[in-house]
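Q: Sequence in, structure out?
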Amino acid sequence: MGILIGNISDGRGASGVGGHVKDDFKSYVEAAHGEVREETGLTVTSLTPLFDDEVWRDNPCKRGDGPYGMGHFWQVYVAEAEGCLNPDKGSFSKMRWVSRADLQKLVGRTLLRVRGELTDEEWVSEPGITFSWVRWLAEADLITVTEPELREIEEFMLTDETNRP
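A: Exactly. Output:
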């Protein structure tokens, strides 16, 4: 079927489903099931974690800093799901299934944004992948980025003010 992504409603870019465990959930697995259901209407049938355990990542978050400063713990899953797609409009606009090639094109837009080759208006009207999600998509082998490109995106992410409280 493809890879499910959506444009985050506040204009920060496109990403997969995400959320915070401490919202309403007791575990990462419970959060993954709950966030997919809440944000897409789909039911998770299979979860494969990218990491054996949660990982700390220095990244800005609209909710503020984590226990060790800027960033928080992450667990990311590749999921299979079933049901009828019914996106939560408060979370995403333009939710869609994309191919790996489509995803790669979106990463190209992210690089253009990082390099100052897209205006704010161009980014909001046709965003690339959110800065924090590029690394996870690369680790899941869903996209290809070079180490210098990934460093470029990560450095930009750390100074980007659009994802701060």
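The chain is about 35% helix and 20% strand.
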